[in-house]
């Protein structure tokens, strides 16, 4: 990259250099005017919104991802952990933006993210494939997080820093808003979750073109200084002509490892714990605990992220207008604590309505915005107090810290909340069964399964009745549906009865009628014949006088009628005295008809309520499909029911961790740069303006040499005293001891510049 002597690429000549080299030579040798800075900041915010939309999209479709890939919730959480870890590492590596610039890093990152969404996720059908794609997004996110924040700082003076940082922090929040809006409005129409990533990827390619053609950054000698207000512009450019950039970049992380920087980074990371939970897991939280649909769960995000977007912008404006950051942070922290406590309370009440959560999430979002936009401004000013040349390094430490906290908080989730996997993997199926809406079953089967799910005793009663009426049910099963229906409608109709007996016996209706009439005319002989077993009846029909057959018949008659053995021969003689045709019919077909008639009579004696119960549940419960569904319900139902009971308490425990983080944030506010009272901030600003005017007048009277650079602004670098040149400085009024100045010096003046170089 070029040093401060690089050719002018200011917005008026925006003329990037001729040829394709203009696509990567992006440094501006002069500070652009307000309109151009707004344009560059807008592109940075646009890329941030786009990227976080892509990164947070997995949360909006998390339930579909788990169901389609079969991954467990713990595996899903581990994917988030690995992605956050990759983001943490690349956030730290993004500190090289101080040496190699920001714009190209952002542009390439946007392109790579778009390619992952367009080419990776649409073909990711397994859990591991999803994990690889999401890890890549996390790695790119860490770099963009630091590079875009550094760009915003570079183009914004301190007096407008909170507004600019408010716009930048809109990026992650608006990314969440876009995710919620897109998913909530398309979830019912787009069945394949991969299509959501295709939409996000195509949008990313469009933003990449914008960034490639128009995104710019300041040359190192310009961005490595503190610019408090627009009045500093001429002085910053004058100082840039003699600034030793390489000296300012020596041992960057050692310079940034200070309590005010690291402590603030840790504090905001813990404070945003509830934000990370909301981004990553609120949709699945509302779906599993409160039964909201995918579109409803994401629509809650529309309220939350919309409110936070507005808060970030407006609070940034107010913070800049008043000139203070810390009071906003304090009020935001208290508001976040109260809102999170309300969320904990309602989590324990599963009947909480959709709009009750809206009333909780909107204040929570406003509180987060109230604290975060001023914090971002205050943090960059705290970094500048140490060394403005290492802004990206300070932001890299923050990026590393915040991603480490995200990694740990995400990793912790499945150990605190253990109920998500059964609720996601089995919950919807169990709920469909319980509601009688299982798509695998027809209406009657669903009705039976729903009833059994509500009253498991139905199965026990069916089994008991089926055992008691086994023979009668077998008789009913032999009848045709039409005959069963006719018997139910006209049980006393003789024609219907004859038809039923015909079906049961396998004889014609005429034979049924003959058997009935023959039995009525010869009641005693018929009773005698019915005591004989089939073999004896057949032997007597073939040879009525056979002594062996008569002997067998006599024994059977005595036993069957319960009469003395001496009376049995007379009963047998009376039976054999019947006409031969009638006897043969009675002993063969007639007996089958009479036996069928007995079975039909027994069936008619079963209580109607028992038959109706068995008709409603008995037959469907014998269906293998229904039995399979009920076995699944028996195996998974108790686990899902327990998860439903335990889930609210586990989420409440997790939210208490967020409250602890919000409390820890408060004391760390006091370590940061900046005043508490607007009056103090105005006095410090006035003193700074006077110092700038004096420095500009000194430059106009005697242009500085490389060894005598005006340093009335907060010195850009800390260097060893032995290396610092002796320069003449105009007197600067010091702020009161109890009120730190926004332009408070943090070390020695910058060293003299080395000989100019065309490239470094």
Automatic annotation (TrEMBL):
UniProt-recorded Gene Ontology molecular function terms: transmembrane transporter activity
Cellular localisation: Cell membrane
Chief place of localization: membrane
Sequence intervals crossing the membrane: 38-55, 75-96, 103-121, 127-152, 164-184, 196-215, 259-282, 302-320, 327-344, 356-377, 389-417, 654-673
Keyword DNA damage: no
GO biological process, one term: monoatomic anion transport
Pfam families named among the record's database cross-references: MFS_1
Span of domain Major facilitator superfamily (MFS) profile: 40-472
SUPFAM superfamilies according to UniProt: MFS general substrate transporter
Keyword entries, A-Z: Membrane, Transmembrane, Transmembrane helix
Listed Gene3D superfamilies: MFS general substrate transporter like domains (1.20.1250.20)
Membrane-related topology note: Multi-pass membrane protein
A Gene Ontology term for the protein's cellular component: plasma membrane
Composition bias type Pro residues, residue spans: 747-760
Region of interest: Disordered: 724-760
Protein name: MFS transporter
Species of origin: Frankia nepalensis
